[in-house]
Amino acid sequence: MALLDVRSISKSFGAIRALSEVDFSVQAGEVVGLMGDNGAGKSTMVKLIAGNFPPSEGEIVVGGKVCHFHKPIEARAEGIEVVYQDLALADNLTAAQNVFLGREIRKGIWPFRVLNKQAMIDRAAELFAELKSETRPRDLVKKMSGGQRQAVAIARTRLSNAKLVLMDEPTAAISVRQVAEVLELIRRLKARGVSVMLISHRMPDVFAVCDRIIVLRRGSKVADKRTDTTSPEEITGLITGAIRDA
Length: 246
Description:
The mean pLDDT is 93. With 246 residues, this protein is of the alpha/beta class. A hairpin with a 2-residue loop joins strand 1 and strand 2. It has helices spanning 42-49, 72-77, 95-99, 117-130, 146-158, 176-191, 203-209, 232-240, and strands at residues 4-13, 16-26, 31-35, 57-62, 65-67, 80-83, 106-107, 114-115, 164-168, 195-199, 212-217, 220-226. The strands form 3 sheets. The chain has a 6-stranded mixed beta sheet with strand order 6-9-10-3-11-12, sandwiched between helices.
C-alpha cells in the first residue's frame, strides 16, 4: 500500500484549469521529485496535498484512507508536513523557538502554565543531532546559513513524526556547500523511513537524491520515471515539451 495516492486530481480556478486528471503515488521512505516549468501545476499540487484547498475532482488517499483536506492542520493530522521555499521562520527567534513555534511545550497547572524553555532546547538539540546538523538550539535564525535554516524547518516537521515532507525549492538561492547540507538532510529523512516530495528546478539535486521523477506540463502528468532509467536530457525534454511523454 502506497503512503500517498493521488487519484485523477483536477483543480480549476474559475476558467483556469491548473491540474487535469493527475495520478501518482509515493511509497513509504521514498524520495520523489516533482518537476515542471513555471505554470506546470507543481505549486497547486503541493497546496492540494498540504490541505490549503480541496481538489475540484479526484481523491487524495493517505495510507489507504480517502482524505478531504480543507486546511493544513487536517493534512498535518495525517502526517503530511510542508517546508515552503521561504521557510516561514522568525529571524529574531532562536532555532529552538522556531522549531516549537505554535507548538510550545509548557509546564505547570493552568492558569499558571509557563513555557518549558529547557525542554524545548533539549528536544531541538535531539532533532538536530538526529539530522546530523551543526545547528544549535540557542542560535538566532538571522545569523544562520541557508543550510542551517533548512535544518530548523525540517526539524519542525519531525516534531509531529511526519510521514511525508513536501519540500518546495529547498536548494534555491543557497551556496553549493549549503545545497550539499540540504541534500544530506533529505537522505537522513529517507533513512528514517520518511517520504519526501522534492519540488525543484535544479536537475542535479533531483538526480542526486530522488528515487523517481514526476514531470508535470501544463497541468498534466507527462512522465513518472525511476531516476536510474532516465537522464537529465530526457527530463528537460519532457519539461519543455520537446519530448511529448515517456
